[in-house]
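Title: Prediction job returns without error message
Component: structure pipeline
Severity: low
Priority: P3
Assignee: unassigned

Description:
Job completed but the reporter wants confirmation the result is attached to the right record. Sequence as submitted:
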Amino acid sequence: MHLACKVGVVVPAYNEEKLIEQTIRTMPSFVDRIIVVDDCSQDRTAEIVESVARESEGRILLLRHEVNQGVGRAIASGYRKAMEEGYEVVVVMNGDAQMDPRDLIRIIDPVAKREADYAKGNRLFREESWQMIPKYRYLGNSVLSFMTKVASGYWHIADSQSGYTAISLIALKRLELDQIYPRYGAPNDILVRLNTHNFRVRDVSVRPVYNIGEKSGIKLYKVIPTISWLLFKGFWRRMVHKYIIQDFHPLIFFYLLAFGALTLSAFFLFRTIYYWIQMGSVPSTSFLVFWFLLISGLNSLFFAMWFDMESNRHLR
C-alpha cells in the first residue's frame, strides 16, 4: 500500500525464464499484489513464477493464457483481475526486468495523489539515454512518439512505447479492455482511448535499462507500419468521439481541410514532375496550384494542431 492506496502490479510475460524471477523478487514491499500473466510461454516462465509464488504467501498470482494472444491482451487480462480485486493503482511492469523498480514510487505517485489518472515512464530525455538505448530503437521510438502525440492529443508526452505505466481504478473501469490493441501497439492505443474520456496523463522520467540479457521481440520494420495504421485509425476515432459527438469543435474542419489539401498537393506535385520529365517544362498552372494547396494544407494542419493542444492543455 502506498499513500493509503492498494497497489497492484501486472507483469505480462512471454518466454522470460531468464529474468522473470529477478523482476518479481525486486518488486518493492509496498506492492500489495503481483499479477503475472504468462502469455503461453514455451519455456520455464510459468514454472519459475509458480516456484517463487509458493514463497510469497499469496502475494503473487499467476494467470496463464492457453494460446499466445500478445502483450496487449496479457495486460488486459491482468487489468481485469486487478479491477476484480479493487486495486486503486495498477502498474504494468514487463517480465524482462527492463523497468527499474527504483522508479516505481515515482510512477505511482501522481496517480496515488490524484494528480493524474495515468502515469507513464519516459526513457528518452535522460542524459544517458542516447548512449544506452540502441540508436535504431531510439529513433524509431521518437518517430512513433510524435505520431502518438498527434493521434492521442497528449502533446506533452514522449516515449510512447514505454510500457512502464500506472493507472487509477477509475480510469481503468472506463477503458474498453476487450478492444485494446492486442500486441505492441497497446500503449499507443490506450493513450488514444484515455484522451477520449478526458483523463489526465503525466510523463515521468525513468532510467533506461538495457543489456541485462533481455531479448526484444520488436522488429521495427514491422512494428512502425502497423502502429502507424493503428494511430491513423485511432486519431479519426478520437476526432469523431471528442470533437463531434461529445462536444463540437471547429478543429475537425481544419484537419479535414488539411488532409484534403495536402492529398491534392501531392497529386499536383507528381503531375508537375511527370510533365517536367516527359516534356522538359513545367505548366505554370500546375506549379501554382501545387504551392497553393501545400501552403493552405500546412496552415490548416498547424491551426488544427494548435487548437488540439489548447483543448487538451488541462489534461497534463
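Comment from assignee: result matches the submitted record. The mean pLDDT is 92.
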